[in-house]
């Protein structure tokens, strides 16, 4: 049974019904401001505060440990044979083949597959799937600003970091990069410092693809362009060694210490030869040695970089950089510690004739030297604070040069695709890209790769990838924009015209300087003839004494001139003071006369 409560109330007890209407605003109470109450309140300026109706989150960063990956390979052998047949046994294979060929199913299967194969061959003969139908069509490329992006960074895996002193690209495509690591600061390496160098897979920066174990740290390392498994390296102790990656990390053969360089080997280059085993090396001991990796017992040839052409090792200039162009197999060039570039001819008859010419290149060591791949007569050098472009025909000065930078330059290389583009590295960690057709005073692109010094630079043969190594062993791989690795229209002709114009200018200036020197020489000879004969020739000591006397005479003359100027200045000040005193006295006398007249 449901209980229901009923509440009742009359309508008139609810009150009067509300009726709303519109009317003007009415002021009921007006409260005037009372200044006496202001002390009870604190004045506050209006403040805008933004409020978001979302939950506030705090941001945290976590750096996880590096995950090292390892590549493993599987060797697939010939398969498909029954278990009782050994594929390496010729008799068992022939016996099984005869058995299969007698089977009726084998003949039917071959006939069926033959029809399919015949149809495919006819199809390939009818249509060339690789034919380029639009070969002559010129695609206009949009001009994008030059740029470069970092692809990968390869760090020295050892705790004690070393400098990445040299880089070498894998000759069969841009898949691997060989990096030589060593500390070039004298006696700065501790006993715990690793001597290993590495080959990196450019897609795996976590772990080296191959480890090279020399007996002394490698200063330079080069792939053999004819055999991608073979590398040759120059050690810090002066030895030359070569490795075959198929035979393990240890060197296959090394040059004996007594027949090697006496200083670190800064550069080693493979030569263009039929065997593909010849190379030559250069060191700061002033020697260039030729080697054959099949017999590293002693060098096949030797040349001492003595500018006087007397082949004196004590007066030889230490070699820092080396240049060899395969299209000119008999010529090579070296850059020295003294800042000169020496052009040599290997096939000259005598050692004196092998040193052809000397170029006064830089104020310090020539760290980089490379011929232009399109114009071999023009070469690029880097040293002190500048990069310079030279012509073989002009020895006095370079035909083009960059401005003096604030940081020391360390390395450079030409672009293998564009004849007007080259790259330089500096001690402040900057990679500069120069395009002298576009801009000559400043780099086209300047990239701050690291905060430490960059020591090595190498561009890949296709011109797309460029690698640079730093002082702490960090190798940075960058990809250049398409504009920097694509030949521009009429670029080669423009570069040719520019080089020829600069060469003409330098030849005109050189001839003018030669005329001025001859004129000065003839004037000095005439002055000598006018001098009395009893003076005789000056000995070296007399010349020093004369220079000292001239120096002190110049100082005394300067002192006398300064004293005379000081005396004149003091005399002028005294005159001004006397004039001022005279005027003051006259004024005082005039005032006294005025007072007497008034009385």
Question: Could you describe the 3D structure shown?
Answer:
The structure is a single chain. The protein is of the alpha+beta class and 599 residues long. It is 23% helix and 26% strand. The chain is built from five helices and 28 strands.
Low-confidence stretches are 533-538
User: What is the CA-CA span between the terminal residues?
Assistant: 145 Å
Spatial arrangement of strands, main beta sheet: 1-28-27-26
Query: Helicity range of the residues?
Result: 10-25%
Largest sheet: 4 strands, antiparallel
Number of strands: 28
Radius of gyration: 43 Å
Taken as a percent bin, the fraction of beta residues is: 25-35%
List keywords for this structure.
alpha+beta
Give the gist of this structure:
The protein has 599 residues and is of the alpha+beta class. It is built from five helices and 28 strands.
Task: Chart the SSEs and their pairings.
Blueprint: H1 90-101, H2 104-126, E1 148-154, E2 163-169, E3 176-182, E4 197-201, E5 210-212, E6 218-224, E7 227-235, E8 240-244, E9 253-254, E10 265-270, E11 278-283, E12 287-292, E13 301-304, E14 319-324, E15 331-336, E16 340-345, H3 351-354, E17 355-360, E18 366-371, E19 378-383, E20 386-391, E21 400-401, E22 409-414, E23 421-426, E24 430-435, E25 445-448, E26 454-459, E27 465-470, E28 475-480, H4 491-530, H5 540-598
Antiparallel strand pairs: 1-28, 2-3, 3-4, 4-5, 6-7, 7-8, 8-9, 10-11, 11-12, 12-13, 14-15, 15-16, 16-17, 18-19, 19-20, 20-21, 22-23, 23-24, 24-25, 26-27, 27-28
